Amino acid sequence: MNKDLTVGKPSSVLFRFCLPLFGSIIFQQLYNIADSLVAGRFVGENALAAVGNSYEITLIFIAFSFGCNIGCSVVVAEFFGARHYERMKTAVTTALISSGVLCAALMAAGLIGCTALLRLIRTPAELMADSALYLSIYIWGLPFLFFYNIATGIFSALGDSKTPFVFLAISSLSNIVVDILFVTLLHMGVDGVAWATFLCQGMSGVLALVAVFRRLRKIVTDRPAPLFSGVILRKIVRIAVPSTLQQSFISVGNILIQSVINGFGAGVIAGYSASVKLNNLVITSFTTLGNGISNYTAQNLGAGKPERVRQGFSAGLRLVWALCVPLALLYFAAPEMLLRLFMEQPTAAATQTGVMFLRILSPFYFVVSAKLVADGILRGAGKMGAFMTATLTDLALRVVLAFALSRTPLGATGIWCAWPVGWCIAAALSVAFYHGGYGRTASGLRRLFRRRPA
């Protein structure tokens, strides 16, 4: 069901819209968490480390799919808010065609260069074979990842966050079952974990695409919409490229950090692999809520209602901070219990690493969530320069400090200390860009968020 985000009380509208988005990201993260959990408990600590090691490289591919999702979603939401349904349909097919070409190029590059990338991040010899196997199978599933993300972006742009939630919930739960089946009953190792993700993500991608085309057929236009538009592609690219670069730079930064971590041995890698999955569950949840705020912003700007954006910022902060409280408390108070979900008999190094990582980062979830809400509005308004500045500042600080502090007596703990520094400074920048004379008044918002005609 399509939902108009330009009417109704902003806090209620955002809550109803973002709640299924939050549920969706929980199930999305179950893909990677299930892989690590099954690998760690049923195959061994080295298998957990191999999956975690490969995961940092898969984030590069996820970054591109995320950029396609955001670019398509913001443009479709703007056309939907402005009631330009023919252009909206063309935006959908243009995004699908261009994303398909990009996906094919990434698959070719990934299959050719995955082993070289693993060597580049100093993958230990005992993890190399499993890491390469997991990564190559993952790359074959990239079309499903891309088209699923495009489909969910379209649903979100139309104000429907429930349909992708249903598809993803079914697929993620299936992934857990198939993971366990392949590893325990069929006695497969890391390859079983990878093939389970391939099959179940494929199912969700196909179902989501079918649902998108059925939904679009119900929206009547005066004439058939063109399949492709260079003008609309440029609008999508203007949003997608900075979003992709942002996520790609973060992924490259994480790979550089992973190369530092790999120098501390398999135990530290395993502990980091488990704890970073738990951390990413939180950060990705905040990011998804920020994406929902982007769609809310784009729809309201398309409808000529910029004053609702300021109200949406306040409502978004209340929403993410309500989520922060239980998660930060849980991660800080009971990290060892959470880590044991991934590891049957963890080594002392793995446990110590995971506990320290979560206890250092969790108190700062309130800070990074505020950044991601402000980023959502900046991205939905097409203000990508400000968005990129704040995000790349965070990345640069984390990478530089991770290298520097890892060489001090702090050792691996110094790497984890880099996260809060980057988050605090980047959050200050993002909120300042939003508030810098614009967030206080409706007239200021009109200056900041003035758009060209759709």
UniProtKB/TrEMBL annotation:
Protein keywords: Antiport, Cell membrane, Ion transport, Membrane, Transmembrane, Transmembrane helix, Transport
Coiled-coil region list: none
GO cellular component: a single term: plasma membrane
Pfam families: MatE (PF01554)
UniProt GO BP: monoatomic ion transport
Major location category of this protein: membrane
Subcellular location: Cell membrane
Membrane topology designation: Multi-pass membrane protein
Spans traversing the lipid bilayer: 12-31, 57-80, 92-121, 133-158, 165-186, 192-213, 315-334, 354-374, 386-406, 418-437
Keyword Repeat: no
Keyword Membrane: yes
Function noted in UniProt: Multidrug efflux pump.
Family under the similarity heading: Belongs to the multi antimicrobial extrusion (MATE) (TC 2.A.66.1) family.
Protein name, as recorded: Probable multidrug resistance protein NorM
Organism of provenance: Candidatus Onthenecus intestinigallinarum
